[in-house]
Amino acid sequence: MRQYDLSPLYRSTVGFDRLFNMMDQMSNVDNGTGYPPYNIERTGENAYRISMAIAGFGEKDLTIEVKENVLSIHGEKTVEDGKERGEVLYRGIAERSFDRRFQLADHVEVRGAVLENGLLHVDLVREIPEALKPRTIQISTKTDAKVIDQKAA
Fold first, then answer.
1. Nearest-CA neighbor of 100 among 126, 67, 64?
2. Greatest pairwise CA separation for the chain in angstroms
3. Which of 4, 33, 79, 124 is the most buried (most CB within 10 A)?
């Protein structure tokens, strides 16, 4: 992927820092790796689900964090003391550490995460605050207007 230098835009814009930071982050998110694979699906009008294939990882090996509209999912396999494993002749199940980040839109909240059958499901919901929702304004006619005080000149 090409790298773009956005520094000339910083000196001629005000308040767009977050937009430029998002563009920088998006260019550096995956670093070319596709591990672990994931799906993003819409489950409702304002509901989404991220599903990640993380075979071999348990709940204690995963960390999910949301900070400044960035969902971070980190996995690191811990070695259990006292548990001996046999000699591995072929390793087809990846147990390498990973750090996957997703940029969330405004007002998108994480509702929960479930680990089942080697898949991590993270449920997201967009909830727009009442103050930002469209509202209907009543229109009155001139005949509805009341005259409070009328004096002759």
1. 64
2. 106
3. 124
Residue with tokens 């969330």: 104
Q: According to the 3-state scheme, what is the secondary structure of 66-112?
A: EECCEEEEEECCCCCCCCCCCCCCCCCCCCCCEEEEEECCCCEEEEE
Residue type, 112: G
- Cis check for the bond before 37: say yes or no (omega within 30 of 0): no
Query: Per-residue pLDDT tens for 65-121?
Result: 999 889 999 999 876 655 667 788 888 887 789 999 998 988 899 999 999 999 999
Entry field: residues in the chain? 153
Using 50, 70 and 90 to split pLDDT, how confident is the model at 134? Answer: confident
Contact between 25 and 101 under an 8 Å Cβ cutoff? The reply is yes
CA angle 56-109-17, nearest 5°? 105
What residues form DSSP beta bridges with 73?
A: 64, 100
Q: String of b and e for 29-41 (b: at least 16 CB within 10 Å)?
A: eeeeeeebebeee
Residue with tokens 């689900």: 49
Asked if 128 and 107 touch (Cβ cutoff 8 Å), the reply is: yes
